[in-house]
Every structure is written in C-alpha cells, then in structure tokens.
Backbone:
C-alpha cells in the first residue's frame, strides 16, 4: 500500500492500484482479512480464492514455514472470505471480484460450486 501511495503521489494520478489475492496472503504467513485491510483503499480488483492445509508430504503451495496448502472450492478452505469482503465494503471498494480456482479437484464440479459460494458471500453483503 505504501509503494502504491508513493507512486500515485509522484505521478499525480491513481492509475496504479492493488489486486489482492485472498489466498496468496496465507503463503506469506498473513491472515487474508488482515492483509486485505492494508490494501483495501487502493484495490481495483480482487482475486477471490481459497486454500486449505494439506499433508506436508503433498505437492502444493508451500508457505514461508514450509506448510503445504492446496487450492480448494471457494468457501471450503481456511480463508475468511466474508471478513475479506466486509473489509473491502467498509473501505468503499466497488471494483471487480473475480473467481480464481487453483484446486486439485474436478474443475467441472468445483468451479460452479465455487461460483455459487462466491455469489452467496457477495449477496450476504447486499
């Protein structure tokens, strides 16, 4: 957020913004809703996805401490997506919230399920 603010200030316009990803913050040891709070006022779009812990022996995304995560159906992982959306709304965010699925299941099943869950989260804020 500080880098974006500095670039905006130096350029004299706000063309640069953030595109926070609700899942990726977990990989750097930061709860997603806390990280979203730090960049919500400069966010233009949000990647909406979810992760869940996986066995250490599995392939997947490793965080800074070596813990393994798998992408999963939105709303079925560990990301507090409702808190992320609430924070964005409180900060006046009115950009796009796109679905990003990086799961290990069947995309023909999991993507529609993720989309339904994302819509439910968005509708709960209306």
Residues:
């Amino acid at each position: 957020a500080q880098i974006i603010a500095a670039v905006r200030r130096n350029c004299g316009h706000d063309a640069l913004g953030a595109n926070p990803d609700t899942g990726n913050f977990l990989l750097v040891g930061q709860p997603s809703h806390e990280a979203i709070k730090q960049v919500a006022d400069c966010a233009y779009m949000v990647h909406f996805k979810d992760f869940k812990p996986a066995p250490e022996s599995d392939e997947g995304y490793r965080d800074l401490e070596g813990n393994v995560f798998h992408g999963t159906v939105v709303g079925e992982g560990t990301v507090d997506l409702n808190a992320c959306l609430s924070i964005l709304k409180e900060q006046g965010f009115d950009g796009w919230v796109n679905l990003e699925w990086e799961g290990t299941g069947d995309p023909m099943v999991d993507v529609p399920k993720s989309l339904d869950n994302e819509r439910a989260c968005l509708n709960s804020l209306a």
